[in-house]
Design goal:
By secondary structure, the chain is mainly β. It contains five helices and 17 strands. The two termini are 15 Å apart.
Length: 304
């Protein structure tokens, strides 16, 4: 799905150099005020800040990696495409950032990131200005959740935050760990959920679940269960529970022919723990995810 490019050209021209619990919907606690948010970025860390946000800040490694296909059972160093990210501009109030990634194969990825009252909006354009095809297939924003869940990093924390985390299975919010829980892969621990439209050979080399998620939303509850962090991208490659108290909705590029460009959009929601309201909002923002096509090829193209 294409969308207007938010006058990025003008911005750039003027700017300087990751056993199944009950699948019942949880009862929301007393309503929590959604945090008013602002943004900053340095040293590959996107900082989301807000007085109502647990710990006052949420960090996202942005971007963690750009990846080639064939990644499910391969050394990670052979999957990643080197890149460098720079800050192009930041509004004075921290409401908008513009970042640019340059991949080692020549691809340029521009990111316009905007903070709202209770969400972060991502508008991403990947362009291949070279005369050679790019294997940039998917990419990873890594959302770190130790402060949000109130669970410190470490082996025990890595287990404890699972109970706060969820995906949707058979249309219902389902907390981790889900059964069956995969535990074998080139790298462990962690858990990957691959949607129907993506080749299972092209995802993170962590344990790959047999469960196919109902939609592209992944998230967790805050320490007091009054807030939810949830994230989604379109198109998306996988959902991933990572190894540093993190969650991912890794977005899909699908490769780029010479001269080709592709658009991606995404959200991080930081909202009161009202699950039906979150789902309704997500479905409005990502209507493509409401019903996944049954006839999509399993060849990794993402095209019928």
């Amino acid at each position: 799905m294409r969308f207007p490019w938010l006058i990025l050209t003008a911005i750039l021209a003027s700017a300087a150099p990751t056993g199944q619990a009950s699948a019942q919907q949880p009862t929301a606690k007393s309503p929590a005020a959604a945090p008013a948010l602002s943004l900053d970025w340095a040293d590959n860390i996107l900082a989301i800040k807000g007085d109502g946000l647990p710990g006052g800040e949420m960090q996202v490694r942005y971007m963690e990696a750009y990846c080639r296909p064939g990644s499910t059972d391969r050394d990670w160093k052979e999957t990643t495409i080197g890149h460098k990210t720079r800050l192009v501009s930041r509004s004075e109030d921290g409401a908008k950032l513009v970042l640019q990634c340059r991949l080692n194969d020549g691809v340029v990825v521009d990111h316009v990131i905007t903070a709202g009252k209770d969400e972060i909006d991502f508008r991403i354009r990947a362009t291949n200005p070279t005369d050679k095809p790019s294997l940039a297939h998917w990419a990873q924003p890594c959302i770190r959740l130790d402060k949000f869940t109130g669970i410190p990093r470490g082996a025990q924390g890595q287990q404890d935050y699972l109970k706060k985390s969820f995906i949707f299975v058979d249309g219902k919010l389902t907390r981790m760990p889900l059964e069956p829980w995969a535990d074998k892969a080139r790298y462990v621990p962690g858990q990957v959920w691959c949607p129907k439209h993506v080749d299972r050979n092209d995802v993170n080399p962590r344990p790959l679940s047999k469960i196919v998620p109902s939609n592209g939303l992944i998230g967790c509850f805050s320490a007091d269960e009054k807030l939810i962090m949830a994230t989604a991208f379109e198109p998306y490659q996988e959902l991933f529970q990572g190894v540093i108290i993190c969650l991912h909705s890794d977005f899909r590029i699908g490769g780029l022919a010479p001269g080709e460009r592709k658009d991606v959009r995404g959200k991080i929601y930081l909202v009161p723990a009202d699950v039906p309201a979150l789902v309704a909002r997500y479905e409005r923002d990502f209507p493509e995810h409401v019903k996944q096509p049954e006839h999509v090829k399993q060849d990794g193209t993402g095209k019928p």
